[in-house]
Specification:
Layout: E1 4-7, H1 11-24, E2 27-32, H2 40-44, E3 47-50, H3 63-72, E4 77-79, H4 89-97, E5 101-102, H5 107-114, H6 116-125, E6 133-134, E7 145-149, E8 159-161, H7 167-182, E9 187-191, E10 197-205, E11 211-223, E12 226-232, H8 239-255, E13 260-268, E14 274-280, H9 287-294, H10 298-306, E15 322-329, E16 331-332, E17 338-339, E18 342-343, E19 346-348, E20 352-355, E21 363-368, E22 375-376, E23 383-391, H11 394-407, E24 409-411, H12 417-424, H13 427-430, H14 438-441, H15 453-473, E25 493-499, E26 502-510, E27 516-523, E28 546-551, E29 555-560, E30 563-572, E31 575-580, E32 583-589, E33 604-606, E34 611-616, E35 623-624, E36 629-635, E37 638-643, E38 648-652, E39 660-661, E40 666-671
Parallel strand pairs: 1-2, 1-4, 2-3, 4-5, 20-21
Antiparallel strand pairs: 6-9, 7-8, 7-9, 10-11, 10-13, 11-12, 12-15, 13-14, 15-23, 16-17, 18-22, 19-24, 21-23, 25-26, 25-32, 26-27, 28-29, 29-30, 30-31, 31-32, 33-40, 34-36, 34-39, 35-38, 36-37, 38-40
Length: about 675
Amino acid sequence: MIRRLLVANRGEVARRIFATCRTIGIETVAVYSDPDANAPYVAEADYAVHLPGAAPSATYLRGDLIIAAARKTLADAIHPGYGFLAENPDFAEAVAEAGLLWIGPPAKVIEVMGDKVDAKALLAEADVPTLPSWTDPDQVDEFPVLVKASTGGGGRGMRIVRERAVLAEAVSSARREAFGAFGDGDVFCEKYIEGARHIEVQVLADQQGGIVTLGERECSIQRRHQKVIEETPSPVVTPELREHLCRAAIAAAQAVGYIGVGTVEFLLTPNGDFYFLEMSTRLQVEHAVTECVTGVDLVRMQIVVAEGGPLPVLTPPPLRGHAIEARLCAEDPAANHLPATGEIHRLEIPGVAGRFGILTAPGIRLDSGVEPGSVIGVHYDSLLAKIVAWAPTRPEAARLLAATLARARIHGVVTNRDLLVRTLRHPTFLAGQTDTSMLDRHPEVLAPLLSSVDAVRLSCLAAALGAAAARRNGATWQASIPSGWRNVPTAAQTAVYEGPAGPVEVGYRFSRTGALAQWWVRAVDPEDLELAPLGQPGLSEDHPPVAVVSATPTLVVLDVIGILLAVHLHRVGAVTYVDSVEGSLALTELPRFPLPGSELAEGALTAPLPGAVGRVLVVPGQRVDIGELLMTVEAMKLEHPVHAPAAGIVTALPVSAGSQVDTGTVLAVLTP
């Protein structure tokens, strides 16, 4: 029996495993890197061991340090979570050789299924359908193909290639990304199916030969080949198809002598055929939806099997309702899903019924790796939290999850929350007509929730009114005078904010009776900011009539043509986070008289996010064509390319490979 368990991972998955350990009486050990010293999972563990450094290669990928930490804390077992070393057979073998219990399948099984090429060949012999693949890119004879990392998962090391001319660069880029994420740069090419769905089957197998499946999950909503929204059961899988999928999954598990909790992943074509993709020999990120509809704690099953016990569930349990999971990530979907960094100031998800465990009734489950005060850096992936809605039917689950996300207050970093809500409410998703390219085919889901002109204007007005109320509350002189009081009633108050689409001026004027006599919100030319305040506009401005019901620093209530609108405000420094039923907005108040700033040189290319410069492919004086790859920036386990926006000459190159850069750092200057 396990007394003390070390989790060789971080963030949300570490907290998830700790939650089950607490319910069954197992003590916990965390390992943490320098950036994770104050992470929530570290505080929740019974013991914690520091892994000096920040990069995964120096910390969470150092199996020797993790085993040493287990020995130091007298741990009995190691759980790898997912990612990092979870599917590394050498680490699994080293854990066993150290006399520790490995929470996962045997190392030889991980080795066989971890090499996707060998796994496909083995399962083809077991009559599991597979797609054509090539280990040598020069032998690819049909396109499109998907370049894939031979080990690992999570979408790292994957590229779609539609023509031979770009195959070599895609393979090189995928190799670098795979090596950075998993320590293994081997890749292969696989036939790519347009319009396919990603369907996976949860498998449990014990050491006594018992094996059971827990239905399928649909994971077709993806970006960058990484899952964004997952659900169970799939809206297109019939009972007959489910039986075929589960039978194939069992055949795959039996072919390798699988033991533990695993997932067999398939590609479902538009005509109903399915093909084996890979087998994840670990807990999946999306395991929570299966737990909701089956009531089975998958982490507990992993521990039971590792301890040598039989599976308590030997027949597939009936599926109870429908569950949908959304991955909340620190990234900007409108900027090609560019990862975001910064401090989480607020993370309020309404109506949460449970965290990190089995729900006793339909509702919202939250599995979060961060709390207010957590800092999102560049070293690890962008996942902040998983929000799961469990309801009697699929439409109810989608509606509940969308409403919960829309009402959430998430401040401090840019997230994909609006994308998730718009996707969950999209007619294509609600009709169950999804595939792995849905987000590419429906760019309208990238629009912010707060998109109507009037809604944006009202949010800006509320921010200005709340800021004025805050100044009044903090006034030390003539505090009894109403906000905005003027001897001359025609004078207006103004403020300038940096909004999502650029600077805007907010102006308003109260009458002598205290009523809002006039207000406006208009775009501002950045070159005119030094003239701010700009004064009131002409009478042609079209704004709905508004009355101010109440205004405090944190809540402004407006009467808009007879409808009350409550706007919640949260100010951090110069930034005001605005939340209402209409959506959310972040506004940065600009100084009325800004100090002169340094201007970027014409043609300067800046870093899109903090990170490390990877490859530099140009030198000063070199001529480049439009779209040519100049360099790469590595952050959050991904490689971000920097392309030439126009043809020209590289006239300055202030960075080199390995340079650490912040957002806005000049990477190169290109003269047209």
